[in-house]
Design goal:
two-stranded antiparallel sheet; single chain; 2 strands
């Protein structure tokens, strides 16, 4: 024990604030939410134990729960790949050694800092209003934009564009990964007359696979937890016609609009299971396409 403490004391000392916060502030609410998910609880009255009724109702009778799953899965399936592709494209452009690259990195990273704020969500709503900036630009070219936020066919796409716009964080990670790829490999490929596409497929993608995997997992988790943009743009109800009913928005509505805290806790645990399942699938499939430099085989 003395040897263990001597070797690891510094690490645990730096982790101490997080560990104290986790065990004192996080463990309690997590356990409480698990208990409440098996109860009928509206804050005013004490929790009433009902067993698995919340979960049975959720999967058998709650159509809005199924709609929230549909909207959330659609958002994740489109926004995450689109963001990663766009971030990688920008990172590869910045990797060409352009001048003032530090300014470009800061400029492109700025949306990732501001994108989750309430102010940006309100600004986004104004941009895509029928009389907003987007439709005004279309009218300049003789076009007529739709009711982006009032039409269920287009409303979700406005949030997908907002998510892709927040590409700064994965872009910086991609850029660091690109800088770590030895240039000698590209030079050898040029000697063999390999073109840009061949170099990208045979060199960039395989050597960047660990970074792609890291960004994929992080962005997938963040996409499942998306809330503020959908809440502000839909007015907190998932409108129009529940086309913006993200799972987190539905959870918030059940908890704080209808005060069904027990049911909302059950929804929260379902979301946790969904995120854990998709993360586990990502880790399981990674052994087929992610390879690390220190692997022996």
């Amino acid at each position: 024990m003395e040897k263990f403490l001597r070797r690891n004391f510094a690490g645990y000392a730096f982790l101490a604030p997080w560990l104290v916060g986790f065990f004192l502030l996080a463990i309690g609410p997590i356990v409480a939410s698990l208990y409440l998910s098996f109860t009928k609880y509206n804050i005013v009255r004490p929790p009433q134990w009902i067993g698995l009724d919340n979960y049975f109702y959720m999967f058998q009778f709650d159509d809005r729960f199924k709609k929230a799953l549909e909207v959330t899965f659609t958002f994740v399936a489109i926004s995450v790949p689109a963001k990663l592709v766009f971030a990688l494209a920008v990172a590869m452009a910045l990797d060409k050694g352009i001048r003032a690259i530090g300014w470009y990195r800061a400029l492109f990273y700025l949306p990732s800092i501001l994108g989750g704020s309430i102010a940006v969500a309100i600004l986004w709503r104004q941009l895509f209003n029928y009389d907003g900036v987007v439709n005004s630009i279309l009218r300049l070219f003789g076009g007529e934009g739709p009711y982006w936020l009032a039409d269920p066919r287009y409303s979700l796409w406005t949030l997908i564009v907002l998510a892709v716009w927040q590409f700064g964080s994965p872009m910086l990670i991609f850029l660091a990964g690109l800088r770590a790829i030895p240039q000698e490999l590209y030079e050898a490929a040029e000697i063999d007359a390999a073109g840009p596409v061949r170099k990208f497929v045979a060199i960039t993608v395989p050597l960047l696979a660990p970074v792609i995997f890291f960004n994929l997992v992080l962005q997938m988790i963040e996409a499942f937890k998306s809330f503020s943009g959908a809440f502000i743009i839909s007015g907190g109800s998932g409108a129009p016609l529940d086309s913006l009913l993200f799972f987190t928005v539905y959870l918030y509505e059940e908890a704080f609009s209808f005060l069904r805290m027990g049911y909302a806790s059950a929804l929260a645990w379902i979301l946790l299971i969904i995120i854990a399942a998709f993360t586990a699938i990502a880790f399981w499939t990674s052994k087929y396409w992610v390879h690390y430099e220190n692997e022996r085989g």
